[in-house]
Amino acid sequence: MPTQEISQRHALVLRAVRRLLRRGAMRNLAKMVNTMRPVDVAKMLRHLDDVSDQRIVFGLVTRTEGRADILADLDEDSAVGVFIEVARAEQLDILETLDPDDAADLIGMLPADLSGELLEQMPDADSDDVVGLLSYEEETAGGIMTPDFLAFREDTDAQSVITHLQQAGDAEMVFYIYVVDEQNILKGVMSLRDLLLVSPKTRLGDVMHSPVITAQVDMDQEAVARLTARYNLLAIPVVEHDGRLVGFITVDDVIDVMRDEATEDMLKMSGTTVESEYTLSVGSLKAAGMRLPWLLVNVIGGIAGAWVLVQFASTLEAALVLTAFIPISMALGGSLGLQSATIMVRGLATGSIEMDDVRRVFIREVRVGALVGVTCGVLVGVVASFWHDPWLGLVVGVSLFIASCVAVITGTLAPVAFLRLCIDPAISSGPLVTMVNDLTGLTIYLGLATTMLSLQGAPLT
Amino acid sequence: MPTQEISQRHALVLRAVRRLLRRGAMRNLAKMVNTMRPVDVAKMLRHLDDVSDQRIVFGLVTRTEGRADILADLDEDSAVGVFIEVARAEQLDILETLDPDDAADLIGMLPADLSGELLEQMPDADSDDVVGLLSYEEETAGGIMTPDFLAFREDTDAQSVITHLQQAGDAEMVFYIYVVDEQNILKGVMSLRDLLLVSPKTRLGDVMHSPVITAQVDMDQEAVARLTARYNLLAIPVVEHDGRLVGFITVDDVIDVMRDEATEDMLKMSGTTVESEYTLSVGSLKAAGMRLPWLLVNVIGGIAGAWVLVQFASTLEAALVLTAFIPISMALGGSLGLQSATIMVRGLATGSIEMDDVRRVFIREVRVGALVGVTCGVLVGVVASFWHDPWLGLVVGVSLFIASCVAVITGTLAPVAFLRLCIDPAISSGPLVTMVNDLTGLTIYLGLATTMLSLQGAPLT
């Protein structure tokens, strides 16, 4: 397994760091930390057990740039934990070194009094950038963009751009040159490679690509990620509603967004509410609080199930053997519905299923439900027949078939309904769909058994 | 919802295309298709219902480059469906236009006789590239790389590289210049931007970055994606075990891998086996076949549940009211276990949980299980007490507590055990963990009830 390959190397580093910390071998530790890549140091820090160890290791990093890169890669709790203990002058140096989007992220995490002081003490240009970024919603294009873009007028020639690039310091990764007019309205784009291919005197306006694929500042970050992925972009420019260029988002941030959104969807589908990230550093009390809400759906479902069973008490009394097939009546519908819901939720999230496809997917799902229902119904029905009696087999088999058909219908339609109501469909799939289908399966089974019993006129004993 | 915003625009296009097809308005359709971006045409084609419509629309695309780009973005069934109907000369033109990795993908999908003929008729250099790529395992670095890299010797000067770039046609997106020795062993890397910043006479060997982060040809694509994402790379070079540079993988392919792997994990967790992709074009019979295997786990679990219930028949006869809380005894453990398993599976997949963290996560999960168990146990226990009798409340409450603790333990450890056995942990989480915990919950509940009944010496009526 490749996961193991990478994690084994990482585990070795982590063990070495813990050993050096235990021994107090600071010289060796400092040497080790300063030869590591910042992102690897960040990964290692995240896995240290307590914040004082994190602070010691972070303190050994000598270069401000390295410290800044580490902070940009740390999770919220760890980043704040080490940053607040750093001397004020160094804090300001780090903020200046960070890309504005990362600086804004960090400042947004800090306690209000500290972030206020830092913003006051930062150079005006930087603090303006940060305040500007903080004014956008967190999970939108504006919230994840960096405002440090390179833009030129249409009449600039290629040589001037190259000269500018050579003089400019180390900005964010540059791949695209944006072309704007006097009002800063985005007009076109060209890649660094395009720039090399034209003669030095060429005007940008004559060779730029237009129209440009852009993200509006208030676009949801998930949509930005999808757009960037779809058009294979390395960076996407962010514009205000009037078309003014205000920043851009690089593909490495897009990758983070995609991974986080997929994680979020998975956790939501398993009924784990995720407001903040469910990281290693979350304590057990908070973790239990995050996971309880949807488990309470199970509790309510369970109590509803108890109520259903009490309604059918006389049937169960007449034929206690019916209880034996309660588990399967509940489970099959729940699982099948969860499958359909997962296929819909993921399809809608990645865009492989569009609203226009819903009818087609629905028809297929109903067919799948019928096929699965027939297979499992016959299988379990035959088992129940031989085990006890053909009537029980018939009741079990038929109810599994009906429950399967119902399950795929709720599983397919619930995510679509939630999306229409502007509720994240990932929420609907896990606990809710499973619960509804569990209960439906149970009711169909006992209802059918009661009907058959009354038709037969004799208990299934 | 931003998803809707994008899909609404897409739905409009799709409806317009369908209308034009129905009317046979080929002139208008051709005009429309040829002004759209290839990736948008591909998306639209994927959503057309039958292959003859797909062929008509594809046939209207005039530029070979556009056709190639469309094919590179289509799913397997659609791509093969339209490609096999194209004239042979045009097929060869398309293959020559495609990047070698995409050409290899396409040829790999075609029927053996057609792919054999095409490989014979292609220029030798191209067919060698394709055959070389086809020799690597599909989901490895070698299988997704492109062999069209730009590499120079250490003594090449910056100006020669720029001149070369200006003369070379439109290769794959270029961001990095790789530096190799006489044996083609990768020595260093520099970005296009670095190249602009040095004076024309500088030797690459003097300014290149080294050592380089590389992927070995047989590395799993998921590990490649994680590596690229972790170091914020735009492309990662692929090397043989002896260090020879053989290709590179661009970030847009990495994004596709990450999305596909996340989709695959989600489907696996819901118990949908995914050998090929579960796309729109999969028929219902095949779809049912893909989903049945894990549902049969439910069936087996259900039959096992029936067996468990039969063992406790005398207990249920003595106190029929116990049946009322069978659903909740089953459901809570199953859901809680699924949450723990999802957290582990996703954590292990993204690298946020390493093997070394398992102990820490395990301890937290046990705490969470105990907290959730106490909360739900007390809640449902109190309901059962008032509903029926305090003894029932005690049985239900205590068994929910025990089942919760057991559920988090199996949920946490099953994925780790599967990973150790080199089985994809995503498999373990859904159906298997849920089934085990369903059955455990049921057994604990009825076992406890039987014990209490025998202690009390009287039925709970």
Features:
homodimer, 461 residues, mainly alpha, 3-stranded mixed β-sheet, 22 helices, 6 strands, 68% helix, 6% strand
What can be said about this structure in brief?
Two copies of one chain form a homodimer. Chain A is built from 22 helices and six strands.
Task: Describe what you observe in this structure.
The structure is a homodimer of 461-residue chains. Chain A is mainly α. Chain A has 22 helices and 6 strands. In chain A, the strands form 2 sheets. Chain A has a 3-stranded mixed beta sheet with strand order 1-2-3. In chain A, strand 1, helix 12 (158-167) and strand 2 form a beta-alpha-beta unit. The longest helix of chain A has 32 residues, at 425-456. Chain A is globular and about 90 Å long. The interface between A and B is large, with 138 and 137 residues.
Secondary-structure map with pairings?
Two copies of one chain form a homodimer.
Chain A: H1 2-23, H2 26-35, H3 38-46, H4 51-59, H5 64-73, H6 76-83, H7 88-97, H8 100-109, H9 112-121, H10 124-134, H11 141-144, E1 151-153, H12 158-167, E2 176-180, E3 186-191, H13 192-197, H14 204-207, E4 215-216, H15 221-230, E5 235-239, E6 245-250, H16 251-269, H17 284-311, H18 313-318, H19 326-350, H20 358-387, H21 390-420, H22 425-456
Parallel strand pairs in A: 1-2, 4-5
Antiparallel strand pairs in A: 2-3, 5-6
Catalogue the unreliable spans of chain A: none
Radius of gyration of chain A: 30 Å
Average pLDDT over all residues of chain A: 86
Strand content of chain A: 5-15%
Instruction: Give the ordered list of helices and strands of chain A.
Output: HHHHHHHHHHHEHEEHHEHEEHHHHHHH
In total, how many beta strands of chain A?
6
Distance between the termini of chain A: 53 Å
- Chain pair with largest interface: A-B, 138 and 137 residues
Order of strands across the widest beta sheet of chain A?
Answer: 1-2-3
Report the principal-axis shape of chain A: globular
**Continuous helix count of chain A:** 22
Based on secondary structure, the structural category of chain A is mainly alpha
Helix content class of chain A? 55-70%
Which sheet architecture does the biggest sheet of chain A show?
A: 3 strands, mixed
- Determine the oligomeric state from the structure: homodimer
